[in-house]
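Submission checklist for the structure archive. All mandatory fields must be present; incomplete records are returned to the submitter.

[x] Identifier: HlyD family efflux transporter periplasmic adaptor subunit
[x] Organism: Fibrisoma montanum
[x] Residue count: 386
[x] Sequence attached
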Amino acid sequence: MENKYISGRSTLSVALRTYPNKWMALGLLVLTASVVVTCNRNAEGISPTYRDLTEAVYASGNVYPRNEYTVTADANGILKQRLVNEGDTIRQDQLLFVLESATEDARRAAAATALRQSQANLQGNSPVLAELEAQVRNARVRLANDSINYARFQDLYRQNATSRAELERAELNYTLSRNNLRAQLNSLARTRDQLRLDVANNRSQLVSTVEAGRSTRVRSLVDGKVYEVYKDPGEVVRPGDQLALVGSGNQIYAQLAVDESDFGKIRVGQPVVIKTDVYADKVFNARVTKVYPKLNRTDQSFRVDAEFTGEKPDAYYGLTVEANIIVSQKQRVLTIPKSYVFGNDSVWIEQNGQKQKIRFVKGAENFDLVEVKSGLNEQTKLLANE
Protein backbone atom coordinates (compact mmCIF):
# COMPACT_ATOMS: atom_id res chain seq x y z
CA MET A 1 0.00 0.00 0.00
CA GLU A 2 1.31 3.46 -0.88
CA ASN A 3 1.03 6.70 1.04
CA LYS A 4 1.87 10.03 -0.69
CA TYR A 5 3.23 13.14 1.03
CA ILE A 6 3.66 16.67 -0.23
CA SER A 7 7.28 17.69 0.37
CA GLY A 8 8.40 20.32 2.87
CA ARG A 9 8.67 22.88 0.03
CA SER A 10 4.89 23.23 0.06
CA THR A 11 4.05 22.67 3.73
CA LEU A 12 6.02 24.76 6.23
CA SER A 13 6.21 24.19 9.96
CA VAL A 14 4.35 26.03 12.62
CA ALA A 15 6.39 25.07 15.65
CA LEU A 16 4.20 24.54 18.71
CA ARG A 17 1.30 26.20 16.86
CA THR A 18 -1.62 25.20 14.68
CA TYR A 19 -0.97 25.23 10.93
CA PRO A 20 -1.60 28.55 9.13
CA ASN A 21 -4.77 29.19 7.11
CA LYS A 22 -5.41 27.31 3.90
CA TRP A 23 -4.22 30.24 1.81
CA MET A 24 -0.72 29.78 3.23
CA ALA A 25 -0.43 26.25 1.95
CA LEU A 26 -1.71 27.42 -1.42
CA GLY A 27 0.63 30.40 -1.44
CA LEU A 28 3.68 28.29 -0.81
CA LEU A 29 2.93 26.32 -3.95
CA VAL A 30 3.80 29.54 -5.78
CA LEU A 31 7.12 29.80 -3.93
CA THR A 32 8.33 26.25 -4.44
CA ALA A 33 7.42 23.25 -6.53
CA SER A 34 5.62 20.37 -4.88
CA VAL A 35 7.35 17.03 -4.93
CA VAL A 36 5.29 13.90 -4.49
CA VAL A 37 7.22 11.14 -2.78
CA THR A 38 6.06 7.59 -2.42
CA CYS A 39 6.95 5.93 0.87
CA ASN A 40 7.27 2.19 1.01
CA ARG A 41 4.45 1.15 3.27
CA ASN A 42 2.91 -2.21 3.97
CA ALA A 43 0.62 -3.48 6.63
CA GLU A 44 3.38 -3.22 9.21
CA GLY A 45 4.37 0.44 8.52
CA ILE A 46 6.64 2.64 6.43
CA SER A 47 10.34 3.36 6.02
CA PRO A 48 12.22 6.70 6.14
CA THR A 49 12.82 8.25 2.73
CA TYR A 50 15.06 10.96 1.27
CA ARG A 51 13.46 14.17 0.10
CA ASP A 52 13.86 17.97 0.13
CA LEU A 53 12.80 19.66 3.36
CA THR A 54 11.98 23.30 3.98
CA GLU A 55 11.63 24.52 7.55
CA ALA A 56 9.84 27.76 8.33
CA VAL A 57 8.46 29.70 11.26
CA TYR A 58 4.93 31.03 11.22
CA ALA A 59 4.36 34.72 12.04
CA SER A 60 1.48 37.15 11.90
CA GLY A 61 1.44 40.92 11.86
CA ASN A 62 0.57 44.07 9.97
CA VAL A 63 1.82 46.31 7.19
CA TYR A 64 2.91 49.82 8.15
CA PRO A 65 4.45 52.77 6.26
CA ARG A 66 7.97 54.04 6.83
CA ASN A 67 8.41 57.57 8.22
CA GLU A 68 5.13 57.24 10.07
CA TYR A 69 4.30 59.97 12.57
CA THR A 70 1.33 61.65 14.22
CA VAL A 71 0.77 65.31 13.30
CA THR A 72 0.17 67.27 16.50
CA ALA A 73 -0.77 70.86 17.30
CA ASP A 74 1.77 73.25 18.86
CA ALA A 75 -0.66 76.08 19.66
CA ASN A 76 -4.05 76.79 21.17
CA GLY A 77 -6.83 77.74 18.83
CA ILE A 78 -9.78 76.67 16.77
CA LEU A 79 -9.30 74.56 13.66
CA LYS A 80 -10.11 76.99 10.88
CA GLN A 81 -9.14 74.93 7.81
CA ARG A 82 -8.60 71.22 7.20
CA LEU A 83 -6.81 71.00 3.87
CA VAL A 84 -6.37 67.21 3.58
CA ASN A 85 -8.47 64.08 3.83
CA GLU A 86 -7.80 60.40 4.39
CA GLY A 87 -5.99 58.84 1.44
CA ASP A 88 -4.55 62.12 0.11
CA THR A 89 -0.99 62.17 -1.17
CA ILE A 90 1.05 64.93 0.45
CA ARG A 91 4.45 66.60 -0.04
CA GLN A 92 6.98 67.66 2.54
CA ASP A 93 6.19 71.14 3.93
CA GLN A 94 2.67 71.02 2.48
CA LEU A 95 0.11 72.96 4.53
CA LEU A 96 -2.27 70.53 6.24
CA PHE A 97 -4.22 72.53 8.85
CA VAL A 98 -4.77 76.19 9.75
CA LEU A 99 -5.64 77.21 13.30
CA GLU A 100 -7.23 80.50 14.36
CA SER A 101 -5.91 81.85 17.66
CA ALA A 102 -6.88 85.27 19.05
CA THR A 103 -4.43 84.78 21.93
CA GLU A 104 -1.46 84.33 19.61
CA ASP A 105 -2.53 87.34 17.53
CA ALA A 106 -2.72 89.51 20.67
CA ARG A 107 0.72 88.34 21.86
CA ARG A 108 2.23 89.07 18.47
CA ALA A 109 0.72 92.58 18.42
CA ALA A 110 1.93 93.32 21.95
CA ALA A 111 5.45 92.09 21.11
CA ALA A 112 5.53 94.28 17.99
CA THR A 113 4.45 97.34 20.00
CA ALA A 114 7.08 96.69 22.67
CA LEU A 115 9.77 96.41 20.01
CA ARG A 116 8.76 99.68 18.37
CA GLN A 117 8.77 101.47 21.74
CA SER A 118 12.20 100.14 22.72
CA GLN A 119 13.62 101.11 19.32
CA ALA A 120 12.19 104.63 19.73
CA ASN A 121 13.81 104.91 23.16
CA LEU A 122 17.19 104.22 21.54
CA GLN A 123 16.86 106.89 18.84
CA GLY A 124 18.69 110.24 19.02
CA ASN A 125 15.49 112.12 19.86
CA SER A 126 14.58 109.67 22.60
CA PRO A 127 13.14 111.50 25.67
CA VAL A 128 14.96 109.07 27.98
CA LEU A 129 18.35 109.68 26.40
CA ALA A 130 17.69 113.40 25.88
CA GLU A 131 17.17 113.89 29.61
CA LEU A 132 20.36 112.02 30.48
CA GLU A 133 22.40 113.82 27.82
CA ALA A 134 21.15 117.15 29.22
CA GLN A 135 22.31 116.11 32.66
CA VAL A 136 25.73 115.26 31.21
CA ARG A 137 25.95 118.69 29.55
CA ASN A 138 25.01 120.42 32.80
CA ALA A 139 27.63 118.42 34.65
CA ARG A 140 30.27 119.42 32.12
CA VAL A 141 29.37 123.10 32.48
CA ARG A 142 29.45 122.89 36.27
CA LEU A 143 32.80 121.07 36.15
CA ALA A 144 34.25 123.70 33.86
CA ASN A 145 33.10 126.50 36.18
CA ASP A 146 34.34 124.75 39.29
CA SER A 147 37.68 124.02 37.59
CA ILE A 148 38.17 127.70 36.73
CA ASN A 149 37.10 128.75 40.22
CA TYR A 150 39.53 126.27 41.80
CA ALA A 151 42.40 127.56 39.67
CA ARG A 152 41.53 131.17 40.62
CA PHE A 153 41.57 130.33 44.34
CA GLN A 154 44.92 128.59 43.92
CA ASP A 155 46.38 131.84 42.49
CA LEU A 156 44.81 133.91 45.26
CA TYR A 157 46.14 131.60 47.91
CA ARG A 158 49.66 131.80 46.50
CA GLN A 159 49.30 135.60 46.71
CA ASN A 160 48.00 135.33 50.30
CA ALA A 161 44.77 136.93 49.07
CA THR A 162 42.44 134.19 50.40
CA SER A 163 42.30 131.74 53.25
CA ARG A 164 43.16 128.07 53.24
CA ALA A 165 39.52 127.21 53.97
CA GLU A 166 38.28 129.02 50.85
CA LEU A 167 40.82 127.16 48.73
CA GLU A 168 39.76 123.80 50.14
CA ARG A 169 36.09 124.67 49.54
CA ALA A 170 36.85 125.44 45.89
CA GLU A 171 38.82 122.21 45.59
CA LEU A 172 35.90 120.23 47.07
CA ASN A 173 33.42 121.76 44.62
CA TYR A 174 35.73 120.90 41.74
CA THR A 175 36.08 117.28 42.93
CA LEU A 176 32.31 116.91 43.38
CA SER A 177 31.65 118.28 39.89
CA ARG A 178 34.20 115.92 38.35
CA ASN A 179 32.66 112.93 40.14
CA ASN A 180 29.15 114.03 39.15
CA LEU A 181 30.14 114.21 35.47
CA ARG A 182 31.64 110.74 35.66
CA ALA A 183 28.43 109.44 37.28
CA GLN A 184 26.25 111.11 34.63
CA LEU A 185 28.35 109.61 31.82
CA ASN A 186 28.12 106.15 33.40
CA SER A 187 24.36 106.52 33.80
CA LEU A 188 24.01 107.50 30.15
CA ALA A 189 26.12 104.51 29.04
CA ARG A 190 24.16 102.09 31.25
CA THR A 191 20.87 103.41 29.94
CA ARG A 192 22.00 103.04 26.33
CA ASP A 193 23.11 99.43 27.03
CA GLN A 194 19.80 98.66 28.73
CA LEU A 195 17.83 100.16 25.85
CA ARG A 196 19.84 98.05 23.37
CA LEU A 197 19.13 94.98 25.50
CA ASP A 198 15.44 95.86 25.58
CA VAL A 199 15.43 96.10 21.78
CA ALA A 200 17.13 92.71 21.48
CA ASN A 201 14.77 91.07 24.00
CA ASN A 202 11.67 92.55 22.41
CA ARG A 203 12.86 91.51 18.96
CA SER A 204 13.40 87.96 20.25
CA GLN A 205 9.96 88.00 21.84
CA LEU A 206 8.43 89.13 18.56
CA VAL A 207 10.24 86.36 16.69
CA SER A 208 8.93 83.85 19.25
CA THR A 209 5.37 85.05 18.86
CA VAL A 210 5.71 85.00 15.07
CA GLU A 211 6.96 81.42 15.29
CA ALA A 212 4.10 80.60 17.62
CA GLY A 213 1.82 82.13 15.03
CA ARG A 214 3.36 79.88 12.41
CA SER A 215 2.48 76.96 14.68
CA THR A 216 -1.11 77.73 13.80
CA ARG A 217 -0.19 76.68 10.25
CA VAL A 218 0.59 72.97 10.46
CA ARG A 219 2.71 71.48 7.68
CA SER A 220 3.85 67.98 6.72
CA LEU A 221 7.33 66.79 7.62
CA VAL A 222 7.42 64.05 4.95
CA ASP A 223 6.37 63.13 1.45
CA GLY A 224 3.71 60.50 1.81
CA LYS A 225 0.09 59.77 2.46
CA VAL A 226 -2.61 60.77 4.96
CA TYR A 227 -3.95 57.67 6.71
CA GLU A 228 -6.28 59.22 9.25
CA VAL A 229 -7.54 62.68 10.26
CA TYR A 230 -8.70 63.29 13.82
CA LYS A 231 -10.01 66.88 13.85
CA ASP A 232 -12.64 68.78 11.89
CA PRO A 233 -13.01 72.55 11.31
CA GLY A 234 -14.53 74.34 14.28
CA GLU A 235 -13.05 72.05 16.91
CA VAL A 236 -10.92 73.49 19.72
CA VAL A 237 -7.26 72.46 19.49
CA ARG A 238 -4.68 72.52 22.27
CA PRO A 239 -0.91 71.92 22.15
CA GLY A 240 -0.23 68.19 21.83
CA ASP A 241 -3.62 67.34 20.32
CA GLN A 242 -3.41 64.79 17.50
CA LEU A 243 -4.51 66.12 14.12
CA ALA A 244 -3.63 63.36 11.64
CA LEU A 245 -1.63 60.20 11.02
CA VAL A 246 0.75 60.36 8.04
CA GLY A 247 3.56 58.26 6.62
CA SER A 248 5.34 57.24 3.47
CA GLY A 249 2.94 56.22 0.75
CA ASN A 250 5.29 53.85 -1.08
CA GLN A 251 7.81 52.69 1.54
CA ILE A 252 6.06 50.00 3.54
CA TYR A 253 7.18 47.04 5.62
CA ALA A 254 5.69 44.11 7.49
CA GLN A 255 5.84 44.19 11.27
CA LEU A 256 5.60 40.57 12.39
CA ALA A 257 5.18 38.83 15.73
CA VAL A 258 7.17 35.60 16.18
CA ASP A 259 6.38 33.21 19.00
CA GLU A 260 8.97 33.07 21.78
CA SER A 261 9.58 29.36 21.13
CA ASP A 262 10.57 30.04 17.50
CA PHE A 263 12.50 33.27 17.98
CA GLY A 264 15.91 31.64 18.29
CA LYS A 265 15.71 30.49 14.66
CA ILE A 266 15.21 33.97 13.19
CA ARG A 267 18.11 35.78 11.51
CA VAL A 268 18.39 38.98 9.46
CA GLY A 269 18.31 38.22 5.73
CA GLN A 270 16.02 35.16 5.88
CA PRO A 271 13.38 35.03 3.12
CA VAL A 272 9.75 35.55 4.07
CA VAL A 273 6.54 34.52 2.29
CA ILE A 274 3.63 36.85 3.07
CA LYS A 275 -0.09 36.56 2.36
CA THR A 276 -3.09 38.71 3.23
CA ASP A 277 -6.82 38.23 2.82
CA VAL A 278 -7.09 41.50 0.86
CA TYR A 279 -5.15 39.84 -1.97
CA ALA A 280 -6.54 36.33 -1.90
CA ASP A 281 -4.59 35.10 -4.95
CA LYS A 282 -1.24 36.78 -4.31
CA VAL A 283 1.87 35.82 -2.40
CA PHE A 284 4.41 38.54 -1.56
CA ASN A 285 8.10 37.93 -1.03
CA ALA A 286 10.13 39.74 1.62
CA ARG A 287 13.22 39.35 3.76
CA VAL A 288 13.94 39.87 7.46
CA THR A 289 15.61 43.26 7.98
CA LYS A 290 15.48 43.74 11.73
CA VAL A 291 15.03 41.56 14.80
CA TYR A 292 14.02 43.20 18.07
CA PRO A 293 15.43 41.67 21.26
CA LYS A 294 12.60 42.71 23.62
CA LEU A 295 9.90 40.19 24.49
CA ASN A 296 6.29 41.35 24.35
CA ARG A 297 4.96 39.81 27.55
CA THR A 298 1.34 40.28 26.49
CA ASP A 299 1.47 37.58 23.80
CA GLN A 300 4.94 36.11 24.47
CA SER A 301 6.25 37.15 21.07
CA PHE A 302 9.18 39.07 19.57
CA ARG A 303 8.92 41.74 16.89
CA VAL A 304 10.53 41.07 13.50
CA ASP A 305 10.48 43.53 10.57
CA ALA A 306 10.48 42.40 6.95
CA GLU A 307 10.99 44.49 3.80
CA PHE A 308 9.19 43.53 0.60
CA THR A 309 11.63 42.45 -2.11
CA GLY A 310 9.35 42.42 -5.12
CA GLU A 311 5.76 43.39 -5.67
CA LYS A 312 4.25 45.14 -2.66
CA PRO A 313 0.67 45.42 -1.44
CA ASP A 314 -0.99 48.80 -1.59
CA ALA A 315 -0.25 51.11 1.33
CA TYR A 316 -3.21 50.22 3.53
CA TYR A 317 -2.26 51.16 7.07
CA GLY A 318 -2.32 48.20 9.46
CA LEU A 319 -3.10 45.60 6.78
CA THR A 320 -3.21 42.19 8.50
CA VAL A 321 -0.80 39.60 7.13
CA GLU A 322 0.36 36.08 7.84
CA ALA A 323 3.84 34.94 6.98
CA ASN A 324 6.24 32.03 6.89
CA ILE A 325 9.88 32.89 7.61
CA ILE A 326 12.11 30.37 5.85
CA VAL A 327 14.76 29.33 8.37
CA SER A 328 16.32 26.41 6.46
CA GLN A 329 16.11 24.62 3.10
CA LYS A 330 17.73 21.21 2.88
CA GLN A 331 18.21 19.08 -0.19
CA ARG A 332 17.66 15.33 -0.04
CA VAL A 333 17.64 14.53 3.65
CA LEU A 334 16.28 11.43 5.39
CA THR A 335 12.78 12.17 6.66
CA ILE A 336 9.83 10.51 8.35
CA PRO A 337 6.23 11.69 8.70
CA LYS A 338 5.72 13.78 11.82
CA SER A 339 2.63 11.76 12.67
CA TYR A 340 4.86 8.76 13.45
CA VAL A 341 6.78 10.67 16.13
CA PHE A 342 5.56 10.58 19.71
CA GLY A 343 6.96 12.41 22.66
CA ASN A 344 9.75 14.59 21.41
CA ASP A 345 12.05 12.18 19.57
CA SER A 346 10.67 8.63 19.77
CA VAL A 347 9.09 6.25 17.26
CA TRP A 348 7.75 2.69 17.20
CA ILE A 349 9.62 0.30 14.93
CA GLU A 350 9.40 -3.36 14.01
CA GLN A 351 12.50 -5.26 15.09
CA ASN A 352 12.74 -9.05 14.94
CA GLY A 353 9.00 -9.26 14.54
CA GLN A 354 8.44 -7.23 17.71
CA LYS A 355 7.15 -3.70 18.19
CA GLN A 356 9.81 -1.62 19.94
CA LYS A 357 10.17 2.01 20.95
CA ILE A 358 13.44 3.75 20.08
CA ARG A 359 14.77 7.30 20.10
CA PHE A 360 16.35 9.09 17.15
CA VAL A 361 18.16 12.41 16.60
CA LYS A 362 15.96 15.03 14.93
CA GLY A 363 17.05 17.80 12.59
CA ALA A 364 14.87 20.30 10.79
CA GLU A 365 11.12 19.79 10.72
CA ASN A 366 8.00 21.24 9.22
CA PHE A 367 4.32 20.61 9.74
CA ASP A 368 4.30 17.06 8.46
CA LEU A 369 7.94 15.97 8.07
CA VAL A 370 10.89 15.49 10.43
CA GLU A 371 14.54 15.19 9.40
CA VAL A 372 16.34 12.12 10.75
CA LYS A 373 19.98 12.88 11.58
CA SER A 374 20.76 9.52 13.17
CA GLY A 375 19.09 6.52 14.79
CA LEU A 376 17.02 5.45 11.73
CA ASN A 377 17.78 4.42 8.15
CA GLU A 378 15.95 3.54 4.95
CA GLN A 379 15.53 -0.06 6.05
CA THR A 380 13.90 0.81 9.39
CA LYS A 381 10.20 -0.14 9.50
CA LEU A 382 8.15 2.46 11.35
CA LEU A 383 4.87 1.53 12.98
CA ALA A 384 2.02 3.94 13.40
CA ASN A 385 1.19 5.28 16.84
CA GLU A 386 -1.76 3.56 18.47
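[x] Structure attached
Curator remark: Residues 348 and 386 are 10 Å apart (CA to CA). Residues 72-99+217-247 form a domain with the OB fold (Dihydrolipoamide Acetyltransferase, E2P) fold (CATH 2.40.50.100).
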